[in-house]
Design a protein that fits this description.
Blueprint: E1 2-3, H1 6-17, E2 25-27, H2 31-59, H3 64-71, H4 79-90, H5 100-117, H6 122-136, H7 147-153
Parallel strand pairs: 1-2
Length: 154
């Protein structure tokens, strides 16, 4: 997610390719940062939906391993579903992943930018408050999938 001049990007790309799975010049200066905001907003929306879905299935008494095996082959498939469902269902949020506090920071950056550009993001604003509850409970270093933990307690 890069922003800048093409010549600068072309010079840096061989180094970036050494460690990045994907590297693209999105546009001029600042475009990479804005794209990161888009990414984070998309992830938290997915995580909130996934948390609600997994919590619903668990509360309904379903075998979540079977449920995930089926839904991960259709439209609900995502990296988060395939790689985090088990820890989410088990309520394990410590010791891995992107910290809830870091996600909250990123969401606040995106929400501030949305105020400037006129984008309406009520869902993102609500999810930022959920991360605030996680932080207030002393779990800001938990993985950002800890949204599931709020549902399991509510």
């Amino acid at each position: 997610m890069c922003g800048g001049e093409q010549s600068d990007f072309d010079r840096a790309k061989p180094v970036l390719d050494a460690y990045a799975k994907m590297c693209a010049l999105i546009g001029g200066p600042g475009s990479g940062q804005l794209t990161k905001m888009v990414n984070q907003v998309a992830i938290v929306g997915l995580l909130q939906g996934l948390s609600e879905a997994l919590n619903f299935g668990r509360k309904a008494g379903l075998d979540m391993e079977k449920v995930v095996a089926v839904i991960s082959k259709g439209a609900a498939q995502s990296w988060q579903l395939e790689n985090r469902w088990k820890t989410m269902v088990e309520g394990k949020f410590e010791g891995f992943g992107f910290a809830a506090d870091w996600m909250r920071k990123d969401l606040n950056i995106a929400l501030a930018e949305a105020k400037k550009n006129g984008a309406h993001m009520p869902g993102t604003a609500l999810i930022e408050q959920y991360y605030g509850r996680i932080s207030a409970a002393g779990h800001g270093r938990w993985d950002n999938t800890a949204l599931m933990g709020l549902l399991a307690r509510d």
